Amino acid sequence: MAAKKTKKDRVEKKQSPKGKVYISATFNNTLITVTDMEGNALVWGSSGNVGFKGTRKSTPFAATTATDKVIKKAKEENALTEVEIYVKGPGPGRDAALRAIRSTGLKIAMIADVTPIPHNGPRPKKKRRA
Asked: What are the entry keywords (predicted)?
């Protein structure tokens, strides 16, 4: 049998003032993940996680609410002060999430769009016969 873990045995979370925020804005939802500089996830959330369902999940308001909740939690638990933001996807929550981060008072070091763009894409349909 394994011995019961005590407080000393638990791993302490590292307090890092810098972090990365990944925003994935799809047409149906907005996902927000806060990581440390190495890429280890600290906090995450989404429009659905906050309590929105159905078509309301895809609104900018839902994205703002989700972002506020995630950033607040990241500031409390990890003393986050400066972030790099990576935005992916074409959804309506994209700009709203950025505005929400700006309003929380975090210093934004960089904003990058990492939306994947095909350089050739799938094979086109065959030509229509006349």
From this structure: Ribonucleoprotein, Ribosomal protein, RNA-binding, rRNA-binding
